[in-house]
Amino acid sequence: MIPSTNLSRRRSRTQQYPFLAKGIETIIPPPPYEACTLADKILVYATSLIIVGSPFWFYGGIIYLYRKWRQYCKLADHLSKNDARDSNGERLSEMKEGLQPLDTGIAEQYARYRMLAKRFGTALAAIILLSIVGPHRNEKVGSMLGVRTWRLWDAWLNYVGFTVLRDHGNKNSETINPEFDIQSSPAMFAFIPHGIFPFGLAFSCLPERGYQNTWGPFRPVVATATKLFPFVRTLISWMGGVDASRSAVSEACSMHPRRIGISPGGIAEMFETFPKTGFHPNDEAALLKDRTGMFKLALQHKLPIVPVYVFGATKMFRRVQLPHFIETLSRMFKISLCLFFGKLGLPIPFRQRLMYVMGRTIFPPIATGEDVGMLEGDDFHRRVQDMHDAFCSEIVRIFDRNKENYGWGHKTLRIV
C-alpha cells in the first residue's frame, strides 16, 4: 500500500499541472531549471568523463602502461646485451655479485631501467587483475558505501530534470488485478528507448530518489558489453545487475523479489534513429517488432510488464552515422561500436530533461491456477504475441498522449 502522505503529495503535484489529460498522474514533477547548480554541473561533467568516458581513458591507460613497460624492458635489455660490459668485455647481466663495471654510469642506468620496467609492469598487472576479479564489485560493498544515497545522484537528477508521470488512460490497470502493487509486487519494467547510453534505465534503479516514490527497487538487466566499462561495471554490480543472457534473466525472474528492469531494444536500438538512412530527425524509434524474448519470459514466470517511455533519452548524446557493416558487427558481437559525442565533443551528455511515463500494466494472459508449462506450442506463442501486441500498442499510446506535455508534438514514434 502507498502511504497516505504520498497520495496527498501526488494530488497536490497533479494540481500544479492542470494541462495534463484525464488519467495522467504526476508522480515526480520537474525540478525548476535553477535547481541544477554550478556544483551539480561540475559533478555531472566530472563523472561523465570518468564513467561514460571510461573506455577511452581506461584502455588508453592500459596501452600506455604496456608501452612504457615494453620500452624500459627493451632499454634495459639493450644495455645488458650491448653496452654494459666491464673492462674484460663481460656483460653486466653475467657478472657475479660484488663485481662492479668500470662504467658505473651505465650500471646505474641499467638498474634504473629495470626498476621502471618493474613499476610499470606491476601497475599494469594490478589494474588488469582488479578490473577482472576486483572484490570491490560485491553488492554488499555498494550497500556499505550507501551508493544509492550519494549526493552525486541528486546532481544528475537535477541536471536531467527528472520527471515521472503515470498514464492510466481511461481505465486503471490495477482494477484488473487489485493485488498488484507497482512498488513491491513481482514485475518486469520495460524502459523505452535505450539511447546511446542507457541513462533512462540507470536513473530508474540507481538513485534512491529515482525509484523511492515511483516504481520501487528492481534489478537492472544489462548487456554483457558493459563489462568493458570498468566503472559502469562496478556500479552495475552494486545494483545487483543481471547479465542480458536468457539464462541469467530467467534465473532473476524466478528469484526473490522477482523484479527486474530491462531495455528491450538493447544496443541495437541506438542505431535505429536519425541519422540512419530512412529516418527523419522527428522520428523516435522502439526496436520491438521482432523482439518477443521479454514476453516469453514474462509469460513463463507469470510476470506483469510495466511499459515506461523515457522522453529525451535519445537526445543526451549525438551519434555519427558509420558504415552499415559497423552496425552488423555491433549486433554480432553484442557490443556498441558507436561513435558519439556530447558537450564540446566530449562524453558529457547534453542537458536534456528526462520525462518518464508509465503506462498501463500488461498482465500475462493466464487464467488463475493455470499451469504455463502445460501450454502447447501454438497456444504459448499466441499468448506471447498477444502480450507483444498489447505492449507495442501501449507504448505508442503513452507516447502520443504525452508528447505534447514534453514539447514533442511534432514527433512520431516508429515501432521497428
TrEMBL record:
GO terms for cellular component: endoplasmic reticulum membrane. One of its GO terms (molecular function) is acyltransferase activity. Belongs to the diacylglycerol acyltransferase family. Keywords: Acyltransferase, Endoplasmic reticulum, Lipid biosynthesis, Lipid metabolism, Membrane, Transferase, Transmembrane, Transmembrane helix. It holds the Pfam family DAGAT. It is an enzyme of class 2 (transferase). It is a multi-pass membrane protein. It comes from the Eukaryota. It is found in: Endoplasmic reticulum membrane. The chain crosses the membrane at residues 42-66, 116-134. This is Acyltransferase. Its EC number is 2.3.1.-. Its main location: endoplasmic reticulum. InterPro entries: DAGAT (IPR007130). GO terms for biological process: lipid metabolic process. It comes from Cyclotella cryptica. The lineage of its organism: Eukaryota, Sar, Stramenopiles, Ochrophyta, Bacillariophyta.
